[in-house]
Amino acid sequence: MRIVSLLPSATEIICRLGLADQLVGVTHECDEPPLVRRLPRVTRSLIPAGASSRQIDELVREKLRTQRALYTLEWSVLEALRPELLVTQALCDVCAVAEAEVRAAACALPNRPQVVNLEPQRLHDVFASFHQVAKAAQVPERAEAIVTELQQRVQAVTERSQQVTYRPRVVLLEWIDPPFSCGHWTPELIRFAGGREMIGQEGQPSRTLRWEEVIAADPEVLVIACCGFDIARAQQDRSILQTYPGYEQLSAVRQGRVYWIDGNAYFSRPGPRLVDSLEWLAFLLHPDIHPAPSLDPHHPPPVVCAP
Question: 70 to each of 11, 48, 58, 96, how far by Cα in Å?
């Protein structure tokens, strides 16, 4: 089967299912596993290179008002690939090519490929995505062992977290300018890791915050995991974060517990690395209980501790 992935998390799911040899096209953002970087890119971004976080936010809000896309399909590339299966998402209106464009493309392609929409809200939905993709690719038996292994890792974290005598107040920000709470699966991961997310709600979308909400929550641990940004790009906004009134007085700042995490590679991708995200969170919150995750020798550590 000729498979095209239209979001990075789907690419990672497809490859974890052992279907990399059937993957013929990916998005411009797909970078894991490394072998997919040589595949044809079937999407491109309409966000100007070098746009600031505030400018990106304004473009997103305009898109939501006008339905103008931020990502688009490279039609000629897609047509040449002759996909039989398109894996996309309908969860977020701004994170990928619009669902309507994908559906229209599927109808216009001569072979009318099957379209699979992934729409996880919670961690168990992410695991269900493995079964959904495996079934569509006609290898349903491959998902069970993979999901079981991921669930066992989650269970190991949650069992260790039962030893926790105090769960610190946590705020995880998905954006800095303006500040956004976390949402969907992330507050759940924080609970599993032994913390209390003070603003984000499990199974609910992230939302724009008034900075006063962060001050009122007074997190003892502040995690910055900007959607779509690696650590270096997120820290370009560090000076903005530090100018917010009362930032220096936050308990997390005074205690040196501000962590910058590669949000693009981890929390923003509802795929197998969400379990890695959980293990890193658990270690950051309770290093006396949770072991440090194993480091990938091909990647730098995904966490930096900085004020």
Answer: 20, 10, 12, 8
96 near 6, Cβ under 8 Å? yes
Residue 144 neighbours by CB under 8 Å, 6+ apart: 131
Q: 144 to each of 13, 154, 276, how far by Cα in Å?
A: 13, 15, 19
pLDDT for 75 beyond 80: yes
pLDDT in tens, 154-174: 999 999 999 999 999 999 999
Backbone angles phi, psi at 224, to 5 degrees: -110, 115
CB environment 145-177: b (16+ within 10 A), e (fewer): ebbeebeeebeebeebbeebeebbbbbbbbbbb
List strand residue ranges (DSSP E) for 46-140, in order: 71-73, 85-89, 114-118
With beta carbons less than 8 A apart as the criterion, state whether 19 and 2 touch.
no
Q: May I ask the CATH architecture of the domain 3-146? A: 3-Layer(aba) Sandwich (3.40)
As a whole number of angstroms, the distance between CA 26 and CA 37 comes to 8
- pLDDT of 91 over the 60 cut: no
Amino acid present at 261: I
Cβ–Cβ < 8 Å for 184, 207: no
DSSP state of 205: -
**Distance between CA atoms of residues 275 and 250, nearest Å:** 28
CATH no. of 166-305: 3.40.50.1980
